[in-house]
Prior knowledge:
3% of the residues lie in helices and 36% in strands. By secondary structure, the protein is an all-beta fold. It has one domain (4-140).
Amino acid sequence: MDKKLLIVINETNQNFKFVNKECDNDERQIQPYASSSLASINLTPGQYGAGCDIPDCSASKYFDAHHMALINPNNNPDETPAFCFWYDDDQNQYYYTITGVYNTDPKEGDTNKVIPGNVSSSETRKAIYIKNDGTLLITDIYNKQK
């Protein structure tokens, strides 16, 4: 089942550039919050208005071409990602890293982290929260039941 990112909610005072390594057309600016009590809601409609496909990535050899990134453009000429995230199709789990490097070995530094949240395999549309504590959260966007 396709996994689509439709909304990025930014709870920080930072600007971000959203990129999808699988699709250059998905690039968006992610606005900072309007106030500390009002998060910024940013749509990521993708090429066809149904959301951006969240890349599958299950090993480091796939990482460079198969992840999404949030880049803080301020004073960052190399565009080092603040967050990279993807869906691990082998583990059936969403992951992120703040190092910009896919890593499952604790001996090599910070490892990939599971993105906590309320997600199911039956809902395709997702929202990612950029939390003020430097973490990500993911949730389903449920379709209205008839």
